[in-house]
Amino acid sequence: MSAQNLMGAESHGSSYGASVSNSSDENGVVTKSDDHNEVSDKGVTSTVPSTDTALLIQEGDIAADYIERLLDIIDSDGDIDLDVEGNRAAVAVVGNRLSNLVGPRGATLDALQELTRLAVAQQTGTRSRLMLDIGSFRADRRTELTRLARRVISEVRASGEPVKLSPMNPFERKIVHDVVSADGELSSESEGDGSQRRVVILPVMRDSK
Question: N or C: which end of the chain has fewer CB within 10 A?
Answer without folding.
Answer: N
